[in-house]
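[Automated response] Your request has been received and processed.

Submitted sequence:
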Amino acid sequence: MGDPREPPEGTPDGGSGNDDEYRSVVFDESFVRAARIQELSASERLGGYSRGVRPRLGFGHFGSLPRQAVALLLLVAMAFAAAVYFGVSSPRRLGVQPTGNQLTVSVVALGPSSPVLAVADPKSPFAALPPGYSDGAAGLATPAAAATAHFSRVEVTRALDTVQRYLIASSLSQAALVQGQTGDVRSLVTPGEQAQYDQSLNSPSDDQHHVAVGWLVRFDPGKVELAADTVKVSGSMRVTEADSATLEIATDHTFVYALRPAGTDTSAPVSLFSVRRELRFEFDHTDIGAARVRLVDSVLQDGPAGCGVQQADHLQPLLPGQAAGTPPVVNPADHSVPAWQLCGVLGPITTSQ
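Generated structure:
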């Protein structure tokens, strides 16, 4: 019986099935298994379709690559696109400040040593003030801008203008002072602090971070009203750099308001109420471009006011004839009372030093 590996007709003359000259055209087993075999459809056979397989989709040079290589290239491309997207759209690149308790507030009530006296002439409530106070924005004493090491004069000018607008909206505007409006001030606060601002106004608390009067001066319209449209102001601003990327503006102003009891006419007694606001603002280049402030510290002294009175929501002025009473007894072991609540004695109103 013949060798099953030989052709039925036998080995051709002049050669052997194992000759080396035919090795280049012999397909090994791995090549056969990898071959794409596809049977023609009936319509293709009748129509004389000349191709043994359907053509591949056209991917140019990539059409000849193995599927694993194409998949790997797609994964690399997707990873690179994701890295670029998140790198460009990250909060730091967009200039959005991180949220959280960024503002720290301290409020010091200044109690009078005797009952509050009314001014002599309600029509000229500021007549007894010493020289050095100006009307409204004129008393803010906004300095001329100058370039710093890392901020141009134009940027410093814009930052000072934004701080001035913030002080006007939060300390001089009747809408904020006695009408309960807070939107104008909020529009000047950087987005990273707006959540803290909203919580301070909606749920004020004596926790040094959510004190409404740390953001703006405001009175309870059910208790007091302004006796004069004018607010007297004295103070200054100072521009420095906190670091190479941060411009800092510190303000220190005393605001004097003429107040009378709510719901009374012009004949009602009028008294003066003083508020010292020492604020520290920080700006990066994005804050300056957006004309928004980042308020970092707010220290407020107000009087005449009663010691121990809650002032997180509104300031609580003492009106003519009212007295502060004796300062409350403080128990240092009582942890239910914040340790930072302070009280002082109100002295005569003078100009800022």
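Summary generated for your ticket: The first strand starts at residue 104 and ends at 111. The first helix runs from residue 29 to 34.
If you did not submit this request, please reply to this message.
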